[in-house]
Amino acid sequence: MGHGKKPILNPTVSVVPNVISTNGQQYNRQNPKTLISFSIKQHLEEQQREKAMSIIAGSYERFIWGFKLKPTKHDPDTHTLTLSPLFSYPSHLSSITTVACSGPAAASGGSDDTIHLYDLPSASSLGSLLDHNHAASITALSFYTPSSLSFPRNLISAAADGSVAIFDTDPFVLLKSFRPHKKAVNDLSIHPSGKLALAVYRDECFAMLNLVRGKRSFCCRLGHEASLVKFDPSGERFFMVVNSKVGVHQSEDAKLLLELDNGSRKRILCASPGDSGTLFTAGEDRAITAWDTNSGKLAYAIQDAHPARIKGVVTLSRNDSEGASEDPYLVASASSDGILRVWDMRMAAKENAKPLAETNTKSRLTCLAGSALKSMRRPQIGNQKAQQLEEGANSA
Q1: Residue 349 buriedness (CB in 10 A; 0-12 / 13-18 / 19+)
Q2: What is the pLDDT of residues 309-343, one digit of tens each?
Q3: What does the buried/exposed string (b/e) look like for 220-252 if buried means 16 or more CB atoms within 10 Å of the residue's CB?
Q4: What is the DSSP letter of 45?
Q5: For 312, what's the count of Cα atoms within 13 Å in the CB-facing half-sphere?
Q6: What is the model's pTM?
Q7: What's the CA angle centered on 345, arms 250 and 340, to 5 degrees?
Q8: How far is the C-alpha of 144 from the C-alpha of 191, rounded, in Å?
Q9: What does the pLDDT look like over 117-133, one tens digit per residue?
Q10: Cβ distance 75 to 69 under 8 Å?
């Protein structure tokens, strides 16, 4: 970075001292109490548990739903995975519009203009973020997690008033809030480097955001409204969804490489990039489709995956190489009728593919996110002394 201005994506930078309110208390840099924290005993117990993944869903009825997925007997021919409830309660004052999670942290945004935080290991609420400067519905949330870490370093939020906020997660403090565009943000995606993000807007605009400096780098009008934008895991390409079609673009110059189109006029409502150039999409056609973005061809699909339109799809992967190779096709989906299902996409070739796990929330689900619970490598985020205590406990 040289000797210039310090970057925003730096856990040591403090811009707003008081931004968190939990149980009536505010936390600041003078009293840097981390909200996502785990006791030594809890951390050691978690290490002894079986590998598990978490799934978070939001609903129109203001409810946040949390589930733990345990792949105890991974057999594609039997219904052996278990979705165990973590929590379920009305965390917002109005409908939940977006959710995100990474490692032990989860967040939800709603049409009540608020952002709420959750601790997945303890299945508890951490309160809401204040001073994010959003004056409209929260439309997008995304955690930035470096590849070398198993817990998030930053949280990025966007709203219907065009504003974007960058938070540090160690602890949760506002680093920068800016308004790169005046219209509503439809979706936002962070590059794997954490240095930039792409945003698509309701007025058919597309923008590149510099997260290091907290400002807009580029903006243009597409001529059509894109509802979703996603980087692939490598960051070399990104995907833009317009109605029923997906454009595959080169990240370096935004050049359109190819277009994915299954011939249906039904809108794509959700998308999730996978490994090896795979992209999963779902929406009004009630099917989960896997695309080979290298060739532009449809790889496979699960037709009638849900009885209603699918509002969320997420590729479930653990943050370690062993888990990633073990479950490369594990995908979760949520539909507007409240059903949440987990699939092994290797079953897509079967005529009557059955989900590995299923639960019915009996609510109108709006969004979905997934994370690996096994990825907690340190007991307290923002407290290095806890790590030293843990090492002492292990050697005792």
Answers
A1: exposed
A2: 999 999 986 444 444 445 557 899 999 999 999 99
A3: eeeeeebbbbbbbbebebbbbbbbbebbbbebe
A4: H
A5: 28
A6: 0.80
A7: 100
A8: 9
A9: 999 989 999 999 877 88
A10: no
